[in-house]
Amino acid sequence: MFALVDCNNFYASCERLFRPDLVGKPIVVLSNNDGCVIARSQEAKDLGIKMGAPAFLFDKLFKDQKVHVFSSNYALYGDISARVMNMLSSYTPDIEVYSIDESFLRFDGFDYFSLQEIGRKMRQQVTQGTGIPISVGFAPTKALAKMANKIAKKRTETGGVFVIDTREGLEKEIAKFTIDDVWGIGPRHFKMLQAMGIRTVQDFTRLPDAWVKKQMSVVGLRLKHELQGIRTLDLEDVKPKQNIAVTRSFNENYDDYEWVKERVITFATICAERLRKQDSCCNVLQVFLLTNSFRPDQPQYTPATTVKLPYPTNSGIELAHFAEDALKRIYKSGFGYKKAGVVVMEFTPAADAQLMIFNNSNPKHGNLMAVVDKFNHALGQQKVKLASQDLDRVWKMKRERLSPRYTTRMSEIVTIKS
DNA sequence: TCTGGGGTCCTAGGACCC
DNA sequence: TCTGGGGTCCTAGGACCC
User: Fold this and answer.
1) What is the mean pLDDT of chain A?
2) CA of A343 to C1' of C6 (A)
3) Å: A416 CA to B9 C1'
4) Which of strand B's nucleotides are less than 7 A from any protein C-beta?
5) Which residues from the 127-146 window of protein chain A have CB within 7 angstroms of nucleic acid chain C?
6) Which of UniProt's keywords are assigned here (predicted)?
7) pTM for this one?
8) CB of residue A183 closer than 7 A to nucleic acid strand C?
9) How far apart are CA A337 and CA A263, in angstroms?
10) Are residues A23 and A129 in the same domain?
11) What range does the domain containing A371 cover?
12) CATH number reported for the structural domain that contains residue A295 in this entry
């Protein structure tokens, strides 16, 4: 059996941890630049605030309804997530951390245990230990565990735990569960299925395999089997990433080469940092720029270029150079740039980077970067930078409603007045 | 005025090889 | 009119996830 454990309204719940005055109040968390709503407490959902909605459209509603608005605080969410996952891993050695707020757990050899009971205990322990409410769904496949989790969340009488472990139970649930709520069915496939009169999971599982494969590829076919209770997916190991992207929107449009260059160089050094973290070097680097697509009245230009590097590297200095060269080739003045990004691809393990006779990555960079990483780890991100980066911290993301990093900064620890 | 930032996997079609 | 039978690699685009 698999369990899918999911933190309820995770970011909103994190914001509430150190603000008990917000219990029962509507909370939303915004994306970078305070742009879109990316998390909502139940109370905020009830007000009709939609996921992904641009925040400025809701300014009035936020004020009228006294919605508590937060900029995203990933230092906090990441730390709380680690604590939750750590607790969950005491229930079984087989755990896959699927996202910041979800884990799949596999329960092999638990035939004589009550999963219902285990789920209740998990909820109780995680709530007590971290303050984060969770929902737990158990089922014989991952896709069904996802479904069970949604049922646990939706039906209050389940107490946040739902188990699908019999054929009859499965049949009963798939006859009711609608297809748009299924993990792996996105808006496109939903529309197609809906047009054919497919409404429930049961309808979907009755489609012929060949048709599903033709229309939805092997991914869709696997999903169909999963929903029938046939196990086709197992827990996945943490794999090193195949691509690393650092992209940001700017608070306004910029038409200044030096300014854009600084951003692109900074993104490249962050890519390099992330590469070193997983012991990879990259062989290909891509730089792209975007003008503001929400303003069709302004001239649009969305160039991108991909460079094959002469040798694999994870040196921030070298990647900064390559990124700058790439930028030079695509940058044109006369446009208002709203977003830029650097993507690195085609990794090789740092340990077996191919040496070349004439054209080597500077061997001293390895040691230098190790020291830079050490400093930045101890002193905070981007304390040690390249001179070509923004040393005066001119560039700031809009984060007007940022909560303290309660659990990871001594200086921001909660104050109790008594 | 203001609109996030990451990822993965799969397929089709073109270009090339013998 | 008829025109082999395999392959691989790459890219763009589509679909999905959080």
Assistant:
1) 93
2) 37
3) 49
4) 1-11
5) 146
6) DNA damage, DNA repair, SOS mutagenesis, SOS response
7) 0.93
8) yes
9) 11
10) yes
11) 243-379
12) 3.30.1490.100
